[in-house]
Amino acid sequence: MGAAPADTLYLPVGSPVHRLPPQCKIAAVCCFVVLVVATPREAFPAFAAYALLLACVAAAGRVRPGHVLKRMLIEVPFVAFAVLLPFVAEGPRTDMLGLSVEGLWGAWNILAKGTLGVAASVLLASTTQLRSLLRGLERLRLPPLLVQIASFMLRYADVLAGELHRMRLARLSRGFDARGPRHWGVLAKTAGALFIRCYERGERVHLAMLSRGWTGTMPRSEEEAATRAEWATAACLPLLALLVCLGGWTL
Amino acid sequence: MTDPPPDREISLEVSGLAYAYPDGHQALFGVDLTVERGSRVALLGPNGAGKTTLVHHLNGLLAPGAGTVSVAGLPVTGEHLKEVRRRVGLVFQDPDDQLFMPTVREDVAFGPSCAGLRGEELASRVAKALRQVGMEAHADRAPHHLSFGQRRRVAVATVLASHPEILVLDEPSSNLDPAARSELAAILRTLRVPDADGRARRPTVLMVTHDLPYALELCPRSVVLSGGVIVADGGTQDLLGDAELMRAHRLELPFGFDPRSVTAPAG
Amino acid sequence: MTDPPPDREISLEVSGLAYAYPDGHQALFGVDLTVERGSRVALLGPNGAGKTTLVHHLNGLLAPGAGTVSVAGLPVTGEHLKEVRRRVGLVFQDPDDQLFMPTVREDVAFGPSCAGLRGEELASRVAKALRQVGMEAHADRAPHHLSFGQRRRVAVATVLASHPEILVLDEPSSNLDPAARSELAAILRTLRVPDADGRARRPTVLMVTHDLPYALELCPRSVVLSGGVIVADGGTQDLLGDAELMRAHRLELPFGFDPRSVTAPAG
Amino acid sequence: MHVPDGFIDAPVSLAAGAVAAAAVAVSLRGARRELGHGRQQAPGADRTAPLAGLVAAFLFAVQMLNFPVAAGTSGHLLGGALAAVLVGPYTGVLCVTVVLLLQAFLFADGGLTALGVNILTMAVVTVVVAYAVFHLLQRVLPRGRASVTGGAFAAALVSVPAAAVAFTGIYALGGTADVPLGRVFAAMTGVHVLIGLGEAAITAATVGAVLAVRPDLVHAAQRLDSPLELRTSPAPDEAAAPRKPVRRLWAAGLLLALVLGGGVSFYASAEPDGLEKVAADNGIDAQEKAHATEGSPLADYAVTGIAGARLSGGLAGVVGVGATLAVGTGAFLAVRRSRAAGRAADERS
Ligand SMILES: Nc1ncnc2c1ncn2[C@@H]1O[C@H](COP(=O)(O)OP(=O)(O)OP(=O)(O)O)[C@@H](O)[C@H]1O
Ligand SMILES: Nc1ncnc2c1ncn2[C@@H]1O[C@H](COP(=O)(O)OP(=O)(O)OP(=O)(O)O)[C@@H](O)[C@H]1O
Ligand SMILES: [Mg+2]
Ligand SMILES: [Mg+2]
Known about the structure:
The complex is a heterotetramer, with 1 copy of chain A, 2 copies of chain B and 1 copy of chain D.
Chain A: H1 3-9, H2 16-19, H3 22-38, H4 44-60, H5 65-71, H6 76-88, H7 101-127, H8 130-139, H9 144-173, H10 184-211, H11 228-250
Helix pairs in contact in A: 3-7, 3-8, 3-11, 4-7, 4-11, 6-7, 8-9, 9-10
Chain B: E1 10-20, E2 26-36, E3 40-44, H1 51-57, E4 66-71, E5 74-75, H2 81-87, E6 88-91, H3 95-98, H4 104-114, H5 119-132, H6 148-160, E7 166-170, H7 178-190, E8 193-194, E9 200-201, E10 204-208, H8 212-218, E11 221-226, E12 229-235, H9 236-241, H10 243-248
Parallel strand pairs in B: 3-10, 3-11, 6-7, 7-10
Antiparallel strand pairs in B: 1-2, 1-4, 4-5, 8-9, 11-12
Chain D: H1 10-34, H2 48-63, E1 67-70, E2 73-75, H3 80-87, H4 89-107, H5 115-140, H6 145-174, H7 181-213, H8 246-269, H9 275-282, H10 286-290, H11 301-307, H12 314-348
Antiparallel strand pairs in D: 1-2
Helix pairs in contact in D: 1-4, 1-5, 2-3, 2-4, 3-4, 3-5, 3-6, 3-7, 4-5, 5-6, 6-7, 7-8, 8-9
Bound molecules: adenosine-5'-triphosphate (2 copies) and magnesium ion (2 copies).
């Protein structure tokens, strides 16, 4: 539990980026993305500069390019959407292929900004452990109730996975294998039962926590606030991005 | 039962307890039970009798549908819940319900650290509890990667580490290997917990079990719960010797065992 | 072990089996085991010995890291898996692992209906299995709303309903009340399953247990697994009588029980 | 429907963020009240966070049942209606919000700047609309389980297009690509009515299943309470007459089967031979399959949830980057050309 989900997202290599306090990283990434979104779409060099900035962060965080690319799968539905844009948008058309100029711009805008945003988030998730991410959000004044719901959600994600796994083994051991539509009924029923099962398992786990004196807040080791130096280090990214953004507007 | 003499402290007091689960199935139909401080009592009964349901009330995990429960003189309701749970340590029947932290060590540390323990003291408490159940070697593994019996042992350790004044165990010996079973018996017999004044005292133990020889070995007194009501209460040896009672409540003695031939070890 | 005489059919054959869990923890270090058709064998061993791990291999739920497993002459791999699972009925150590359908009845019907049974025949098969474990009254309840021991019984029923030629039970008696325990023993002793030619035959039974008297009562032969290897294999009475062996593998005999004083019932 | 960065311009994104934050703040106040009762509950215990977390985890899992609906758009359960019916509107908003938050931060699903837009459309609008519809129906329909299930169906059906409409509104204010609004509207609502059907069926099936076994868990349903019986000796025959939730569950299961079947066959139609594979990959087995012995839905998120088994590894990422560059080059060329044209026009005049 807890540790398992981090396995594929988080890259456990120690690097200066990994060691930065999570709240600094989250703030830096958020500012960076806002700046990217605020950049005019015509400023091509600015986007190249942003990409370069992220590449530097990745290098500093010892995150392999392959890892980032793999995580960027998430973008696929929107790539498809963007590719459609030049065909459906209005306005003047290009000579080649009769694409909409405005559509091309729109597609470029979405893809460039979306890609940079995804890459930035992926870098954040690759260099920050799940639990410390939540702690960072908490430090950034996300309401504690939300943080608690989130941490329980992560815990119960394991309960859920556990229940699914158990149900699957149980089916297998009694000679079931999912082959074709005939068996969707069984699978569907499993889904219906899943909620109750998980809910009740979760309830029991919650009871167990209560019975050991849990009162609503997880016991956690105290840790210090981020130092000025750490904030300054993290601020490099958004500051440089600010320069780029301003450059983009003045070009 | 007659009233206990006034100088005897009462650890657990249940009266007229009835409970129905949310799906409408009623499990308890009016249970009365009094357990004195420092005594060890076995709770016997067939499957589905309501033992687990009763036990969950002792810790305020379920709220009575009717009747009252009090622990060490405190009614198990609202404002006292925190104190009640500090005093009562509950080992669940299913260890998977009990273990939820990412590592065994953190899980065992959960109770004491909720009670405010920190640092060195916490670490030694955890280490001791894990040593008692023979699981030190697995302290940094994930609980759900252990064998069933190992999980059961960790579940027991989580409760031992909290030093509860009242121990409630729901089939603690099931799935334990025979040696672990008798080690647990030894632990329960020799355990001492500091009370409010710092004196080491024997904890109150209420143990649900289907293992009748084990009940005889550990608990001088037994209570039989069947069909949601208490049907017998008395000395374990007497109850086990009453063949008719036993048979009526699905408590046959196991193959090759005669309760009259043995005497329970002292302690 | 010497080779069995050629006229004896072999139900389970495990050779050189080693397995490590994905987290790197090795549980089996080369296990050899042969079980003849129609025999009842107890698998004993301390907690964490690897019993559950071994048992999961017999049904193809885990794939061997090294070595081979074969069931009724079929290697437990890819194409034979379906057939193997039809022949081997596995009762999991944790009933929650076994039960997953919305009602008890559907759960018990799952195995036979996967094997193609329908209608009247299916219904009577299910009813019979539920009657055997005394759970007819609960057929329409949700399995996860039962008590632990009731869930265990349903888990046994799910397997009985499938008429497997080989029964593998992982601590079937834990959390059962004493009467249910001896009823289960009676079921296992008297169970007959039709073979390919329609003749009623005694199923092969491999039972993991920590309850040594129960093993003696049911299984003429026992195998001790400890630390991921087989350390002893022989007559149950002989093994239980070997105090040193027992002690070395955490298998102390329970309080008040002497294996030499009893003889196992025939059957 | 997770909106990425760059889809909506910065000012509107920020404004949406502010509105979403306000809505979440209101929900935070309401949620404490909402989850504070129930019979199963331990007296006085604070179960808000754990139970909301559980619902969130479940939503997270079902959101991974992704099925493409039309070119480039994939539908998945939004879960707003389910949350609203099961845990009530306030907690519902929180649950969906948390799911979106974690998806954005942990999986880069949905842009960070678009978080406000996403929360507004997928958490606030769906939950509020669903709850309103549900509540209204409960007023007019006769009391009973069927009404609750039916109400849940209708609520879910309406909530999804409502989210699409809300999104179109936001897009009208701050969309970055100049697509005709009418078309966006038509496409969005059209597609989302389809998705809404799926959502409605799954929601109704789940609510029906929960109602049958644990009616107390359905926030919106009244409980059928029978008085406790008291006695002093065991009942003569322990077998109380069992109720029969079988038929309802069966119906619920069938419904769910139809929907999943429908959704999945959409997928499969592109790849008829892959039927079995798809059933296994995208059916309920989705998350369990990859990690036979260990794992979590989170771990498999990108792989099974988003791209299925067909796109593997870095390939898709490369495609994404490649497409970005290609379109960018196209835009760049277009600009150069139009500038050149402009200059030529200037020179001529
Ligand atoms: N969550 C639940 N919902 C509905 N009914 C339940 C639930 N848990 C238990 N029951 C029912 O309540 C009765 C008492 O159950 P309980 O778990 O207390 O039995 P038990 O004495 O602990 O049995 P066992 O020895 O099998 O553990 C049983 O009939 C059972 O079916
Ligand atoms: N899922 C898992 N991942 C990693 N290690 C495991 C897992 N399950 C079991 N183990 C380890 O493998 C070893 C054998 O476990 P197994 O469950 O086979 O023991 P067992 O003999 O069944 O014990 P018990 O009597 O307690 O049930 C143990 O040391 C256990 O910690
Ligand atoms: Mg119980
Ligand atoms: Mg085991």
